[in-house]
Specification:
It is built from nine helices and twelve strands. The relative contact order is 0.15. With 313 residues, the chain is an alpha/beta fold. It is elongated. Bound molecules: NADP nicotinamide-adenine-dinucleotide phosphate. The site of NADP nicotinamide-adenine-dinucleotide phosphate has 31 residues, from helix 2, helix 4 and strand 7.
């Protein structure tokens, strides 16, 4: 049997990083890696390993394509592509998940412990009255209980935080109070001192944090957004930060990236900007996800991590 033709379609510099991992993972999955390439006659391609910023934007010529396997967890830049008529799988990667857990726990602990006061405020004065509360007295809400949100919620639970979570459909997550749907959002926000956004960017989640929902948070709440920029109404957030209703926002993702130099977030004293580095797909573990899906495709088994094109994630 001829090996499947697997086109790697991402920025050119990614190939040298991914190629050895993909070849090894394909071999380990029992898939012949001879057809893994960066150039192929489109009519011969069976699978595209895909980064949405690659040159491939029109899938029409790929007439025998069986699936597009996304290298990113977020699919907002491909989900609406009307030339794509085959299954689209998003990235679920233990390395990506671990990175997101570490980033979210780190930034949660920074706010929880008030670390900035000591890191930036060292002035020779011995102030020893300000003992940080325990995690058990700091409710955290995670918006989005998917691969990443669930893992972050579990890590925070293990540190003692009372964790609530919110998703579209009903979810059970151990030791986490879960809410869903529009009504559940109010309940999820009302007690949250720290809110972490791990929702996808879809028409239904755009501006989910807006003037109305921000007002539902207790005064002094803090926001951590490693999800996507459009989840937040920027004008409403800036205004809530200016009044002090929201004490701080740590933002990793923005409507426009790179964040323009003159954007008010850069200069705002209550905003921390990080340059979309919360977590990245890790080539070694991600290659196993890709290889497993190709193995499944070749065996006629259903693909994992499929995107629901109607829901947009
Ligand atoms: N900053 C970074 O470096 C970085 C890295 C990776 C990913 N991300 C972002 O993280 C996002 C989440 O990734 P993931 O792998 O956890 O995604 P996922 O597994 O698809 O989970 C998405 C979660 O959001 C919920 N959701 C979707 N639409 C909703 C709605 N309208 N109302 C309420 N809940 C809704 C889903 O609810 P159900 O459970 O009911 O389906 C699910 O719990 C990605 O889409 C990406 O934007 C950022």
């Amino acid at each position: 049997m001829a090996p499947p033709v697997i086109l790697f379609a991402a920025k050119a510099d990614r190939w040298s990083t991914y190629e050895p991992h993909l070849r090894r993972a394909l071999q380990q999955a029992g898939v012949d890696d001879a057809g893994l390439c960066t150039q192929a006659d489109p009519e011969s391609v069976d699978y595209i390993v895909y980064a949405p910023n690659s040159e491939v934007q029109d899938f029409t010529p790929y007439t025998r394509l069986k699936a597009v396997l996304n290298l990113w967890a977020g699919v907002e830049n491909i989900v609406g592509n009307t030339t794509l008529h085959v299954p689209l799988a998003r990235m679920v990667d233990e390395g990506l998940t671990d990175g997101m857990v570490e980033w979210c726990v780190g930034h949660t602990m920074r706010h929880h412990l008030g670390m900035d006061a000591h890191i930036t405020g060292q002035d020779g004065v011995w102030r020893n009255n300000d003992i940080p509360p325990l995690a058990r007295d700091r409710p955290v809400t995670v918006l989005g209980l998917g691969e990443l949100g669930r893992a972050v919620a579990q890590a925070l639970v293990s540190l003692g935080f009372p964790v609530s979570g919110w998703s579209r459909s009903t979810k059970i997550v151990e030791n986490t109070v879960t809410y869903h749907g529009a009504d559940g959002l109010t309940a999820a926000l009302q007690t949250a001192q720290i809110v972490i956004l791990l929702l996808p960017d879809t028409p239904a989640t755009e501006n989910i944090l807006n003037a109305h929902s921000l007002a539902q948070l207790p005064k002094g709440a803090m926001i951590i957004n490693p999800g996507r920029g459009p989840l937040i109404d920027d004008t409403a957030l800036l205004s809530a930060l200016d009044t002090g209703h929201i004490a701080h926002a740590t933002l990793d993702v923005f409507r426009q990236e790179p964040l323009p130099e003159d954007h008010p977030y850069w200069a705002h004293k209550s905003v921390t900007v990080t340059p979309h580095i919360a977590s990245e797909t890790r080539p070694d573990s991600a290659a196993r996800t890709i290889a497993d899906n190709i193995r499944r495709g070749e065996a006629g088994a259903p693909f994992l991590h499929l995107v629901d094109r109607a829901l947009g994630y």
